[in-house]
Design goal:
Blueprint (H helix, E strand, L loop, with lengths): L1 H34 L58 E8 L2 E4 L2 E3 L1 H9 L3 E8 L3 H14 L3 E3 L1
Parallel strand pairs: 1-4, 4-5
Antiparallel strand pairs: 1-2, 2-3
Length: about 160
């Protein structure tokens, strides 16, 4: 029976030796990887780690913990952040002054038809300014109705 215990102890000792050797090999491999610039993290490995890289346009954030005083720690951190701003450029708005005098529509003193007013307003970013000079109610209503049905903007003075 003592022979059996010796065999079991030898097998356990051999298994323990193999595990220790594997752990040492892994530890040495990790140390060598660290020495040759291969970091342990989730980064893509594009930088050299000295803080002078230009970045890839992706915002980086880092957190450092300082357990000593500020004088004890000298740390330089350079983060390049590319900011892209998009301003919504609104098209230039112009006004078209339409005067309704009696039953006549006037632009700069020239008589025009409602269809001409709509066409001009539709083909540019134009807001129609309507001025009432003794307009007949039906003429004013016809112009406002035509602009509303076409979905055009207008202002009544």
């Amino acid at each position: 029976m003592s022979n059996k215990n010796e065999n079991n102890n030898t097998k356990k000792g051999n298994a323990l030796t193999v595990v220790v050797i594997i752990v040492l090999i892994i530890a040495i491999a990790l140390i060598l990887l660290g020495l040759f610039g291969k970091g342990f993290g989730f980064g893509k490995g594009n930088g050299d780690g000295d803080g002078t890289g230009t970045g890839t346009g992706v915002s980086d954030s880092s957190v450092s913990e300082n357990s000593g005083s500020q004088a004890d720690v000298t740390e330089t951190s350079a983060v390049t952040e590319q900011v892209t701003t998009t301003e919504a450029t609104e098209p230039e708005v112009s006004y078209m002054d339409v005067t309704v005098s009696g039953s006549v529509y006037l632009i700069d003193g020239a008589e025009v038809m409602i269809d001409e007013i709509k066409y001009t307003a539709e083909n540019g970013n134009v807001i129609v300014r309507i001025t009432d000079e003794n307009a007949i109610a039906d003429s004013m209503d016809a112009l406002v109705s035509a602009l509303d049905s076409a979905g055009l903007q207008y202002v009544q003075n």
